[in-house]
Amino acid sequence: MAWYEEAVFYHIYPLGLLGAPELNDHSQTVHRLPGMRKWIDHMADCGFTALYFGPCFSSGSHGYDTEDYRRLDERLGDNEDLKDLVRYCHQKGMRVILDGVFNHTGRGFFAFRDLKENRENSRFRNWYCNVNFWGNNEYNDGFSYENWGGHNLLPKLNMHEPEVRQYHFDTVRFWVSEFDIDGLRLDAADVLDQGFMRELRSVTDGLKEDFWLMGEVIHGEYGRWVNENTLHSVTNYALHKALYSAHNDHNYFEIAHTVRRQRDMGLGDNVHLYDFVDNHDVERIMTKLRDKRHFLPVHVLLYTLPGIPSVYYGSEFGIEGRKERGSDASLRPALSLEELASADNVPLQIIGALGKIYSRESALWYGEYREADLTTTKYAFMRGDILVTVTNSDAEESFDLELNGTYTGALHGREISSDQGRLRFVLEGNSAEIWIPASERKQYEPIRHSLSNAVDDIINEEIPQRAEPGKSFEDMSIEELQAEILAKLSANGPLTDRMKREVRENVYRDSLLNWVKSFR
Q1: Of 96, 409, 433, 456, which is most buried with the most CB atoms under 10 A?
Q2: Mean per-residue pLDDT, 490-512
Q3: Where are the alpha helices (DSSP H) in 342-438?
Q4: What's the whole-model pTM score?
């Protein structure tokens, strides 16, 4: 079987994690990348077997405005640093995939610079889409062009131009020969030319055994991209949305329907989509969840439903991150591993436990998915001979399943047995368990700490610091608005845990503005 079918991915946005400056003036090379080694060790401890690392090539700002596809971003180091990183990952038994940003370039890319300088006489005028020398833009280029997402910072490449395709194919060959990478995540794959992807698949199939191509696809019929001629996998945004909203809305039918629909599309047990609960473009799972105790059932589902599980750096510690004023900066923070790592960090214990279970249970890679029980607040399914159960309400949930045998809970160590062909047991609210047949005689160390207690600690921590006097509500951050509301509530009487929870879980600026202005 291919390595990626059994992998657990760790996703790192390196410019953020390593604290690189927001803008790149290309004036000096700063070797930040060697600082990644301790994070690779951390990944190994948590059971991750593959790293999605990107973007990392020279750009002007966030990394997706590539200016040199064959040089590591100067804010991270040089090409030797990237070679050493991949080599170290391989020594740890981890595969490495990079971002392939092929749909567009940055304005500093050599072909675009030539287009600006030579205009109609540029030999690269056909490298970009819909170049109009009668137009103009906010950069006063004296011409206009098609871009990605409405951003002229990202001029769109003409993927029908043979020279463009050849340049990209040669770049991928360079990445494999120079850095020994194991795959690519194709940025904006949902708008990439299908013919280009078919050619790319042919090229990469001949470069390295089991070279993996995964595409960023937000919407659509995933089978259009995932097949034997184009990509091996795509980002499973449909399941991403279902995982958090099914818990927030107490509606497990949403997840079950998503799984059924993907199987009806032919994306069954033999198709491994890239599953995730957050990434560099969407808010952190701990921010999206209204009840933080749902971190456990959400991640149990991430690791046990069909697909390839992925965790975004920092989320294994339960950190939060929300979009503010259209910026993704808070989703891509610099982090200190030493400050985050703690034996008492319950989310980290959960991810570590799931990593150990996943590495030993091949049924979670290849086992047939069968739905066993489903209501709005409880969900049970089989992966091969493994039973998975989750709940999303405060109340206990009773399960009565047509199953024979004795099972041991891999997360909490509890044992249950069938009676006359029925497996009956009760699972506490906002919880989850992975039941392993006792006949397999596998033992896992139970999770020792309560996520409920950890959530209570969060709720009962000090009120966030208020904004400086005279600052208008419109200029306040989410945290400052929350602090103002809590302060106004406390002026009217003691704050209850429920009041604190409702304020902390409201992360929507318009709602908070209306709330704080409602006080007289």
Answers
A1: 433
A2: 73
A3: 346-360, 363-366
A4: 0.88
CA distance 35 to 77: 11
The CATH number that domain 104-158 falls under is 3.90.400.10
| Of 56, 67, 39, 60, nearest in space to 98 by CA | 56
**Amino acid present at 343:** A
Bond before 34 cis per omega within 30 degrees: no
Question: Mutual orientation of helices 37-46 and 79-91 as an angle, nearest 10°?
Answer: 20
Main-chain dihedrals φ then ψ at residue 59, nearest 5 degrees:
-145, 175
Residue 205 neighbours by CB distance under 10 Å: 12
Please give the CATH architecture assigned to the domain spanning 3-103+159-364: Alpha-Beta Barrel (3.20)
- Phi, psi (degrees; rounded to nearest 5) at 163: -65, -35
The residues spanned by each domain of the chain are: 3-103+159-364, 104-158, 367-440, 461-517
Tokens 């700002």 -> residue = 61
Q: Where are the alpha helices (DSSP H) in 306-450?
A: 337-340, 346-360, 363-366
Pick the closest to residue 102 from 145, 55, 61 (CA basis). 55
Residue with tokens 């609960």: 277
Structure-token pair, residue 179: 């850095």
Please give the residue that has the higher pLDDT: either 514 or 403.
Answer: 403
How many CB atoms within 10 Å of residue 360? 14
Question: 């409702």: which residue's tokens?
Answer: 502
Cβ contact 334:315 at 8 Å = no
Pairing of strands 378-383, 369-374: antiparallel
Tell me which residue has tokens 């494999």: 176
If DSSP codes are grouped into helix, strand and coil, which group holds residue 456?
helix
Determine the residue type at 512: L
Q: For strands 308-312 and 274-276, give the pairing.
A: parallel
Chain-centre distance for alpha carbon 77: 25
* DSSP code of residue 400: E
Tens of pLDDT, residues 408-423: 999 999 999 999 999 9
Give yes or no for a contact between 404 and 44, defined as CB atoms under 8 angstroms apart. no
Q: Which of 196, 201, 194, 203 is nearest to 221 (CA)?
A: 194
Count, residues in the chain: 520
CATH homologous superfamily of 367-440 equals Golgi alpha-mannosidase II (2.60.40.1180)
Contact assessment for residue 33 and residue 85, using Cβ atoms and an 8 Å cutoff: yes
Identify the bridge partners of residue 156 per DSSP, sorted by sequence position.
104
Residue pair 1/366 in contact by the 8 Å Cβ criterion: yes
| DSSP 8-state symbol, 188 | T
Three-state secondary structure call for residue 298 = helix
470 φψ region: left (φ > 0), alpha (ψ -120 to 50), beta (else): left
Residue-wise pLDDT for 375-400, tens only, equals: 999 999 999 999 999 999 999 999 99
503-508, long-range: CB < 8 A, 24+ apart: 504/458, 504/459, 505/290, 505/291, 506/482, 507/283, 507/287, 507/322, 507/478
Q: What is the rounded average pLDDT of the residues 290-309?
A: 97
